[in-house]
Amino acid sequence: MADFHVDQAAGLRRLFGTGQLQVVTFTAGSEGLGRSLAVANIAAVLAWLGKEVLVLDENSGSDNVAAAFGLAGRFDLLHVLNGERYLGDVLIEPLDGLHILPAATAIRRLGALSRSQQQAFTGAMEQLAKPVDIILVDASTRHPAGFSPLGLASHETVVVLSASSASITESYSLIKKVSQSFARRHFRILINKVRQRADARSIFENIAELTRQRSI
Fold first, then answer.
1. Cα(198)–Cα(93) distance, rounded to whole angstroms?
2. CB distance 39 to 150 below 8 Å
3. Other C-beta atoms within 10 Å of 10: how many?
4. Coil, strand, or helix at residue 24?
5. Which of 117, 157, 158, 178 is the 20 to 30 A CA-CA neighbour of 142?
6. Please, which residues have CB within 8 angstroms of residue 22's CB and are 6 or more apart in sequence?
7. In what order do the strands lie in the sheet with 22-28?
8. Rounded to an integer, what distance in angstroms lies between the CA atom of residue 106 and that of residue 203?
9. How far are the Cα atoms of 72, 76, 152, 187, 210 from residue 59, in angstroms, in the given order?
10. Residue-by-residue pLDDT tens, the chain, 216 positions
């Protein structure tokens, strides 16, 4: 897993287990678009609907998913991978059925996980009291590869953008990069910070047309 290649997707999915588990990655072309808050809201609603939700939070600081619930983590997934902490020591649980796993440090090293660390990850997942139904990845925009390696394991990739021209341009660049580097051809678009549904529809149509014209 030292390199980020498309054929690693199956191996990464095995880290998450099998069954009906759904993995959805939320990403953005830049910060400040409300991505983490959107993930927090979606996770809370899914938990309220009775789903067991795990948020892999690749971000640190005051604007990550845990902070949206007024919480902060003391440890990181890397502590679990290195055998320094149990999963229960690291998880943040703001609501019944909602688990947040801080992973900002671990994600920077995910491409170089040793076999023992991979086994530690799968073993940690088995420590959960209930099987997870959905994993939401709040992907960092600062990953060295330009896209979260956990995105390789996701079934869906959601690009969050706003109505600003800069956000639209950055989102297009991100889609192009992910498409060319990771052979992703299908993306979902979440448009934040708009006042009306019609505005969101117009932005979506613009970015869809841009990608079609440039043959991504």
1. 36
2. no
3. 10
4. strand
5. 117
6. 133, 134, 135, 155, 156
7. 92-95, 98-102, 53-57, 134-138, 22-28, 156-161, 188-191
8. 35
9. 11, 11, 18, 21, 29
10. 334 344 444 555 555 555 577 889 999 988 888 999 999 999 999 999 999 999 999 988 788 999 999 999 899 999 998 889 999 999 999 999 999 999 988 887 766 567 777 777 777 777 777 888 999 999 988 776 667 777 667 788 899 999 888 998 899 888 888 887 777 778 899 999 888 999 999 999 888 887 777 655
Q: For residues 133 and 22, is the Cβ–Cβ distance under 8 A? A: yes
CA dist 149 to 30, 40, 84, 121, 183, Å?
Answer: 17, 21, 23, 15, 13
Integer-rounded Cα Rg, in Å, for the chain is 17
Residue identified by tokens 């590869």 is: 145
- Burial letters 53-81, b for 16+ CB under 10 A, else e: bbbbbbbbeeebbbbbbeeebebbbbbbb
**What pTM did the predictor assign?**
0.85
